[in-house]
Amino acid sequence: MSRLLAAAPITALVYHEGRDVDPVMRRISDRLAAQGLSLAGFIQRDEWRADRPRCDMILQNLSGGHAIKISEDRGAGARGCRLDPSELLRAMAAAREAIATRPDLLIVNKFGKIESEGGGFRDLIAEAVMQNVPTLVAVPWRNIDNWRRFAGEFAVEYRVEDLPSDDAGLCRALGLQRQETVDERAASRPEI
Fold first, then answer.
1. What is the CATH number of the domain that holds 40?
2. Which of 35, 111, 185, 192 is 20 to 30 A away from residue 58, measured at CA?
C-alpha cells in the first residue's frame, strides 16, 4: 500500500506549450524521494546540442537510475516526430517492472502525442490505477481533450502556472503528502 496520500488516483499537471514542466516534475520527485517515498517512472530531461535545432529527449528512470534516450537522431534538418518507439517500449517495460514492486508513486513524464492517440504509457497509467499506485503525469494543453476522455473521474488537474514555487507548498497544493505508517506513529509517541 502506498505511503502517499493523494487527492485522486491520478494527479495531472496541465501546462502550455513552451513551458518547461520537467523542472517542476523533478522538484516534486526530489521532494517525495527525500521523504523516503519509493518512486517509479520517469522524469524527462532535454539535452541540447549545438549542431541540432531540437533537443535529445532523455528519460531518467526513478527506480533504477539509468537513463533512456527516447529520441532518434535523424540529422540536423529532420522534421516531424523523432520518438524512438523501441526505446519507449524499453522505458515502459522498466516502469512496468517497477510498478510490480508497489511504489508509493508512479511518475509519467508526459501524456504526449503517442498517449493521446492510444499508445505509449497509457496502459501503464491504467495498470497503476488498478493496482492503487498513485500517479503523477504532465499533460500539455494540446492533449487535454484526449486526456480527459482517458482519465475521466480518476484524475484531478492542476495548472502548472497556478502552483506555489516552494517545494513543500508545491507538493501540498497537489495533495501529494506522505502519510505516516502505523509503525511510524507508534515510534513518534512518547512513552508513558
1. 3.40.50
2. 35
State how far the Cα of 10 lies from the Cα of 34, in Å rounded to an integer.
21
Q: Which helix (H) or strand (E) holds 115?
A: helix 113-116
Cα 71 to the center of its chain, rounded Å: 18
pLDDT of residue 185: 46
Domain total for the chain?
A: 1
Beta strand extents in the chain (DSSP E only): 4-5, 10-15, 39-47, 56-61, 67-69, 105-108, 135-140, 155-159, 177-178
Q: Is residue 192 part of a domain?
A: no
List the chain residues with pLDDT less than 70: 46-56, 65, 70-84, 180-192
Angle between helices 144-151 and 122-130 (to 10 degrees): 30
Are the C-beta atoms of residues 184 and 35 closer than 8 Å to each other?
no
Residue pair 89/101 in contact by the 8 Å Cβ criterion = no
Per-residue buried b or exposed e for 127-155, using 16+ beta carbons within 10 Å of the residue's own CB: bbbeeebbbbbbbbeebeebbeebbeeeb
Nearest to 6 by CA among 119, 115, 140, 104: 104
- What's the mean pLDDT when you consider all of the chain? 82
